[in-house]
Amino acid sequence: MAATLLDGKAVSQQIKEEIRDEVTRLSTAGQRPPHLVVLLVGDNPASVIYVRNKMRACEMVGFSSTMKRFPEAITEAELLRKVNDFNRDPDVDGIIVQMPLPDHITPQKVTQAIHPSKDVDGFHPLNVGLMTLNFPCLMPATPSGILELLRRYQIPTKGKHCVVVGRSRIVGRPTSIMMSRGGQPGEATVSLCHKYTPPEDLARIVPQADILIVAVGKPGLITADMVKPGAVVIDVGTTRVPADDTKSGYRIKGDVDFAEVKDKASFITPVPGGVGPMTIALLLRNTLDAYKQRFDFSHLLQTPSNSYEDES
Length: 312
Description:
Elements: E1 4-5, H1 8-28, E2 35-41, H2 45-61, E3 64-70, H3 76-88, E4 94-97, H4 107-113, H5 125-132, H6 141-152, E5 161-165, H7 172-180, E6 189-193, H8 199-205, E7 211-214, E8 232-235, E9 239-242, E10 250-253, H9 258-261, E11 267-268, H10 275-291
Parallel strand pairs: 1-11, 2-3, 2-4, 5-6, 5-7, 7-8, 8-11
Antiparallel strand pairs: 9-10
């Protein structure tokens, strides 16, 4: 029996409609719409497409959006100054600096320059720390999208063995943390595999997964023999592979051999149309949350006192 598709496209549309309804209520009450700013450095074709999709999504839900393009030769110092200008702008609620950046710019410096209350990508160290502790914060969009799919399809996670393949700071690592935290989805037993996991261990651990989340960027890495019957399979991989039978000359492939695995899993995400649309939907929701000033970080950004009081 074929697996049920985790339809990220349909769920993301539901989330966008929910956001649009709330923005309409805000407008009716005389309030300005949320405002997202995206900074794009250089002319990376994939980045241009990603940014364009974000701008379109903002328009769909009634957000204001601004795209600022800079030449690839912009200095790191100048880019940081631009970020700080938007940090200080009270009419800007969310800031995204599109990755990748040119080699002469350090991504970590740019990530840390965005004020955590406007960090709708959820990459600032303060947001990452709060996420780890299960405190309210702006969480990374792709992992949040994965958990939202599990939530909306009412897939139980408590006590399940979740195997995450890939440990990137954008997807794999935060997903493994979020799946182990309290709540639903959450409370899972998590194994995190990565490029240094020996092949024999990968072959042993992956088939144990009740929930398998793969974010590596290697098409067809996960085959049917590696999947437990009835497992939930979430494929985050999106790799362009040559395809003579398509107009574009390529096809988007995931990390999972979909044709084989769909007859063995209970739920599975398609590629495309699975996790990808969820990422943009959760970016929009983060922007709405930032606009509503749900998260006050001011007390966490103050210089700590040297005094210490033992609370034990």
